[in-house]
Amino acid sequence: MTDRTLGICALLLAAFMTWAGWGIEAPFAYEPVGPRAFPMLIALMIGLCGLRLAIKGGNPVEGNPPGANSRIALMVLGAAAYAFLFQWLGFIIATALMTVYVGRLFGGAWLKCVTGGVIMGVFFFFLFDRALDVVLPAGLLGDLL
Q1: Please, are residues 18 and 36 in contact by the beta-carbon 8 Å criterion?
Q2: Partners of residue 60 on adjacent β-strands
Q3: d(Cα 49, Cα 68) in Å, to the nearest integer?
Q4: Backbone phi, then psi, for 60, in 5-degree steps?
Q5: Residues 93-144: pLDDT tens digits?
Q6: Confidence band, pLDDT 50/70/90 cuts, at residue 31
Q7: Cβ(36)–Cβ(17) under 8 Å?
Q8: Rg of the chain on CA atoms, in Å
Q9: Distance (Å) of CA 137 to CA 86, 90, 91, 114
């Protein structure tokens, strides 16, 4: 694969994201920008990066090192499990577990992964749920929060 091929794939992804996100509308206006802005902004950034790669193009891309593809596959499975368990476990527990899982998957020490996972789960829950008023599921910790 070359940079140009990756750029064209990124442009196709950006086009798909724009098509899929264009019809997103909130049933009531709670913010001036609305929910469509975030996917459109991400699609724009992916599209610009893809355009840059497609124009620059030509450089061959090195293959993944041994074991990387299996870790990537396990990451996809971990993300699916995170999405599936997110509501039931709640944001704090699901995020802490996902952080530990990803950290261990890529060679992190147990203590650092667990510490980082707990801090991230708690910090981001209070940041988004309390400070920014983004409702997140409390899950199993519902009575404690």
Answers
A1: no
A2: 2
A3: 24
A4: -70, 145
A5: 999 999 999 999 989 999 999 999 999 999 999 998 888 888 888 888 887 8
A6: low
A7: no
A8: 19
A9: 8, 5, 6, 21
Cβ–Cβ under 8 Å, residues 78 and 98: yes
- Looking at residue 77, its amino acid is L
8 Å CB contact between 7 and 54: yes
Residue 30 structure tokens: 């709670």
What is the pLDDT averaged over residues 29-37?
66
Please work out, in degrees rounded to the nearest 5, the angle formed at the alpha carbon of residue 98 by the alpha carbons of 76 and 13.
Answer: 35
Query: With left for phi above 0 and alpha for psi between -120 and 50, is residue 81 left, alpha or beta?
Result: alpha
pTM for the model stands at 0.65
Conformational region of residue 28, where left means phi above 0, alpha means psi within -120 to 50, and beta covers everything else: beta
Of 22, 23, 18, nearest to 43 (Cα)?
Answer: 18
Q: Is 95 exposed, middle or buried (0-12, 13-18, 19+ CB in 10 A)?
A: buried
User: How is residue 83 written in tokens?
Assistant: 């999405």
